[in-house]
Amino acid sequence: MSEASSRATASFLDHTPNPLAFGTSGLRGLVKDITDLEAYVNVKGALAYLAGSGGLRPGSGVVIAGDLRPSTDRIMAACAQAIVDSGCSVENAGKIPTPALVLHGIATGRAGVMVSGSHIPFDRNGIKLSKSAGEILKSDEPGIAREVARVRSEEYGRSLSESAFDPSGMLKRAPALPPVDLAAEDRYVRRYLESFEPNGLAGMRVLVYEHSAVGRDVLGRILRDLGAEVVPSGRAETFIPIDTENVTDELLDRLEGLAAAGMNGRRLDAVVSTDGDSDRPLVAAILPEGDPSRRRVRFLPGDLLGIVVADYLRADAVAVPISANDAVDRRMSDRGVLLRKTKIGSPYVVAAIDELVRATAHRRVVGWEANGGFLVGTAMALGSHTIAALPTRDALLPILANLFAAAEQRLSLATLWSALPRRYGRAGLIDGVPVPVSGAILAQFVVPGDAIEVDIDDRGGVTDRTRSGGVPLLLPEAVAERWRKRGELLARFFAPEFGFDRIARINVLDGVRVYFQNGDVAQVRPSGNAPQLRIYANADSQARADQIVEFGLREPDGILRRLGAGVFVK
User: Closest by alpha carbon to 268, among 289, 292, 244?
Assistant: First the structure.
């Protein structure tokens, strides 16, 4: 779609719409831009695409759900109108986790519409679409965009009297949603109660940080039914964005305070929570009393949390995004597990899982993201039970698998985690960097051609490492020289003054990921759904990983700001 057509407007509107756009997972935008009309054209267009591509049976039901943002109810009503006008019936699953909606959709052969902005601030929201087989993939997005453009043209072509929308883009008569049907929520709860050993968490005392997570009640219910004593805490009626990839000192302080209050003279084993739509986990261990200057809670980032889950499920093939802590590489190599790296975003991980299931003999295929959301590609035995496939990001499985692994081995979570490879990660971001701007910055570090990952040795030799399992290829001198120039430019930003060693490897699968001779790793990437520029770090100590991110975010002259005002290769 051209810029001109995407910014077209209807004669009856009193504003120029800002069309929603796909991010790493789903459509996102400011609430003020997600008018009823904008939600309607996107959902009606997506359903038309799904009906034509086999992802939606004509006349079938579509499951709709939402998170606890203040804007969600209105947007759900507009989406419901689009579903009805597409010739489908609406099943209102209410306020449930995104994975619960997708699980129910797969089980019943229905498409799904989840109104949620996930972890982003409350002034934004989004729409996550799923087909009867599961998540919308990146390969679906062009077809959806064409159908959305067609529906948009139809709706914009109506006069004010003909349109169902007023000049502000709101429905003249918003529909009432059907009564909530608990089938999707109940199916999700049964998934875990029927997969894990009954009473397997007996003796554990777990604090659930409820805040405004849509799955807060479901999480507490499942933990109780599996035997844990649950301490609910921190419930909020206003929306609180929790980004499990950007766990700040402020959030850790909050968890520390909740844990201290929750102990109340008694043992506490863990603090658990999720993001807004409950597809990303947050898990913190409670450390023994000791140094009063040290935190009593230890947060484990999602990419490391996923290693424990993969071990617990005895996975034999794994897909993770390139941003994952390289402890994943070490652990999977030690275990002889096939590892595939993807671009960042659950649709890419789903596509890689699908490929592993189709093209390999592996039968325990899983994936996860740096935010901790875990995906199961194949049904697999879990003790005396079986857990079904759920190829969409989920927060409950990583929480439960970590607690069960600790309980079964009679270890504290902190002791369980101490056996992980000693690689440490941190992530952070700066706001107010438009995605096209940050994308243009990082595009300067890509050399045209097939190479995605290259090694640069201390004599300037450049080797293409892109071909997984293949023989490394020494690049022609002209191409090698362009990669060397990229390395020299990156070294101006990731400079010795910040403690960086010689650049040994560059990966441009998604953003730019830089590997240094001393083992440090830094990756810079635009957010796929917000005007943010993110930095990820891995190192041999938490202090160094924290320091890399600090250097990246420092104002006004940190690495990310310097990149934004940088000198580019010509």
Answer: 289
525 has which bridge partners?
A: 534
pTM: 0.90
What's the CA gap between 280 and 120, in Å, rounded? 12
pLDDT, one tens digit per residue, over 126-152 is: 999 999 999 999 999 999 999 999 999
Strand-strand pairing, 338-342 and 317-321? parallel
**Which one, of 435, 434, 431, 465, lies nearest residue 450 by Cα?**
465
Q: CA quadruple 312, 313, 318, 323: dihedral positive or negative?
A: negative
CB-based burial label for 354 (10 Å; 0-12, 13-18, 19+): middle
Query: Of the ranges 35-39, 52-56, 449-453, which is most confident?
Result: 35-39
Q: How far apart are CA 527 and CA 561, in angstroms?
A: 15
Question: Rounded distance, CA 30 to CA 34, Å?
Answer: 6
Homologous superfamily (CATH) of 194-417 is Alpha-D-Glucose-1,6-Bisphosphate, subunit A, domain 3 (3.40.120.10)
Known catalytic residue at 118:
yes
Give CATH 3.40.120.10 domain extents, the chain: 3-182, 194-417
Of the CATH numbers 1.10.1370.40, 3.30.470.20, 2.102.10.10, 3.40.120.10, which one belongs to the domain with range 3-182?
3.40.120.10
Helix and strand tally (H, E) in the chain? 17, 27
Let me know: does 170 contact 36? Beta carbons within 8 Å. Answer: yes
Could you say which DSSP state residue 33 is in? G
The pLDDT score that the predictor gives to residue 569 is: 39
Q: Report phi then psi at 56, rounded to 5.
A: -155, 125
The dihedral through the CA atoms of 307, 310, 313, 314 has a sign that is: negative
User: Which pair of structure tokens corresponds to residue 524?
Assistant: 């810079």
- Do 324 and 303 contact (CB within 8 A), yes or no? yes
| Model pLDDT for residues 461-493, shown as the tens digit of each residue | 999 988 655 567 889 999 999 999 999 999 999
pLDDT at residue 469, rounded to an integer: 53
* pLDDT tens per residue across span 516-544: 999 999 999 987 667 889 999 999 999 99
Q: Exactly one of 71, 118, 130, 527 is catalytic; which is it?
A: 118
What is the rounded distance in angstroms from the CA atom of residue 138 to the CA atom of residue 24?
Answer: 9
Residue type, 451: A
According to the CATH classification, is domain 424-564 in 3.30.310.50? yes
Identify the residue with better confidence: 437 or 371: 371
539, with CB counted inside 10 A (0-12, 13-18, 19+), is buried
